[in-house]
Every structure is written in C-alpha cells, then in structure tokens.
Amino acid sequence: MEFHKSSILSVRQFDRESIETLFALARRMKKIARRAVRCRVLEGYILGSLFFEESTRTRWSSEAAFQRLGGGMINTTDVRFSSMVKGESLEDTARMAGIFCDIIVVRHKEVGSATKVARAAGKPVINAGDGPGEHPTQALLDLFTIMEDRGSIKGATVAMVGDLKHGRTVHSLARLLMLYGVKYIFISPDLVRAPPKIVRELRGNGFAVKETRDFEEGIRKADVVYMTRIQQERFTDPAQLKVVNDGYYRLTARHVSRWCKPTAIIMHPLPRVNEIATDVDRLRQAAYFRQVENGVLVRMALYLLILGKEGKFV
Ligand code: NCD
Questions:
Q1: Is 230 in the pocket of ligand 1 (CB under 6 A)?
Q2: 127 lines ligand 1 (CB under 6 A)
Q3: pLDDT digit of tens for each residue in the chain (314 aa)?
Q4: Rounded to whole angstroms, what are the CA distances from 108 to 6, 11, 20, 111?
C-alpha cells in the first residue's frame, strides 16, 4: 500500500507491511506528542476537520495530532455550521475544503460519505466514521494498543461485546484483524448481532467466529475484551432500543477478576455509557485511556506518511 497522497477510507486498504511502517513511525511520535521534542514539520499545512456528526475524541485527537506537528487547521465547530444549514451539498463543501486544505478528516452519518468527499476534494481524506460503515483510524489505534500492550496479536482470541450491528469501530477492527491469526467471539443481544455480511466474510476467509449472547462464557476465553456502547442514535424503533437496553452488558472490576484471564486487556473506543463500571479503570488490564493516547501517535504518523514528511520530522 502507498501512503503518499492517499486517502484512508477503509481498513481494507492495509496490509501487514503498511501497518508495520505506520506503527514504527507512531512509536517515534511519543516524544513529540508529549512535547519533550518540538516539531514543526507541518508548519504551513492546513487540516480540514469536517465533522458533520457528533464527535469528541476523534476530532480532538485528529486536530491535536496535526497541531503537535506544527500544522494549522480549519474546522466545523459544530454539526449545524453554515453550509449544512443553507443546504449546500456535501460535494460542494468538500470541493471548497480541497481548495483551503492540504488534507481532510471527515465524519458524516452516511455510509460512503468519505469516498464522496475524497472524490470532490481532490486532496487526501481520512474517514473518521461514515455512519455505521467504517472508522479506520480507530481500528488502527486499537490494533496499535493491542500490539503495545501484549507485544503481539498472533493467536489471540478477541471478544467484541455489545451493539455489533451498528458499531463501526467493531466493523473496522474485525476486518483489520483478518490480517493476523485471531479468533473472534461476538457477544451481543439478538437484535444487535454483527452484520451477517461481516460474519460471512470472516468465516469465508477461514477465521473461527463464535456468536453468543452469554457475556460470562464469551469473555472467559478472551485475550482482548472489546466493549462497546449501544449506538442509540442509529435506532429507528424506540421499542427495539428498550429491549436492547434491558438486556445490555455491564463489566465490573469483580467480573474482570472472576471471569477474565489475568492477561486479558479491556478495551473500549469510548464514549462509555454504563457498559464499563468506573471501578475497572484502576485495573492494569484497562486499556481504554491508553487507546486515546495511542490515537494521537497513530494519527501523527499517518499525516506524515500521507504528506510525504516521514523522513523529515527531526
Ligand atoms: C466511536 C465512534 O464514533 O464510532 N467513538 C470514537 O470514535 N472513539 C464509538 C462510539 O461512538 O460508540
């Protein structure tokens, strides 16, 4: 895979070699991210930070990563900014962003929206979530965290828990992990099982996928427990949301100590709602705030590779 001038729209673009390149560079970003080393390599570059759907972490992380490297940015301060209110098309907004910016990060509620923006903007675009579609940079930072915490992912059993139907981070991570020899356990209420298309894809590629409703049984065997919230904004039927809410999972420190392998790590893309009790936070296994830190490193490395600055940052 070629990073230079490329858009990052799906995890399907990646192979193991490109991931190794990206992660090696991400590790070298630690000092810059902590400001132990000053870096202005992206001075004069402008990031277009286009979030048409709610975001806290991904937006802050994408913007902080660019600014840590000396770049500037223009952004949509909230989802009701002018072009949306006036009825401008996504394509026109994208085309303009392509005039002002060198690289664009976009989040939008429609599946395929990032691809549309990339076509219209003519500049590299990073998909920061296209509705229930994909969220490739989240999957990359998730994988980076697993590698940093465990040393390797080979042979790991990964349990994905919760709203697997609508959770785009799950869709991207499940696909990305196909590059490695993992086993999958999908734990969810019936109404929000993983899309059959994804399950078929994984099985068709020779991967073991177990689907269950049983939280305890599912997480006992896991090396990675990837919790997710109910994506309540994607439900059209309030009655269905209530059913899912009523049977939802909640992980507590007691569950971790009684059920999980001592070496298992607990992950979450955040925001959490009730599915991880705060008493889990103090456990060594809790990796979700490390994921946030790692997200900045991975996004910094990605910008450098896309903008062809990877050899010039010190
Ligand atoms: C996720 C998202 O927006 O898909 N958050 C994130 O980017 N870290 C997960 C979620 O909203 O549940």
A1: no
A2: no
A3: 999 999 999 999 999 999 999 999 999 999 999 999 999 999 999 999 999 888 889 999 999 999 999 999 998 865 565 566 778 889 999 999 999 999 999 999 999 999 999 999 999 999 999 998 999 999 999 999 999 999 999 999 999 999 999 999 999 999 999 999 899 999 999 999 999 999 999 999 999 999 999 999 999 999 999 999 999 998 999 999 999 988 899 999 999 999 999 999 999 999 999 999 999 999 999 999 999 999 999 999 999 999 999 998 76
A4: 19, 17, 29, 8
Task: Give nearest CA residue, ligand 1 atom 6.
Answer: 269
- For residue 254, give both structure tokens: 């007691």
Residue 242: both structure tokens together:
């209530």
Burial class (CB in 10 A: 0-12, 13-18, 19+), 85: exposed
Q: Is 164 in the pocket of ligand 1 (CB under 6 A)?
A: no
Distance CA 113, CA 68 (A): 28
The residue type of 144 is: F
pTM above 0.85, yes or no: yes
Q: Which residues are marked as active site?
A: 57-58, 86, 107, 135
Do 169 and 139 contact (CB within 8 A), yes or no? yes
The rounded Å distance from CA 188 to ligand 1 centre is: 17
Among 58, 144, 228, 292, residue to substitute to test ligand 1 (most atoms within 8 Å of Cβ): 58
d(CA 46, ligand 1 centre) in Å: 24
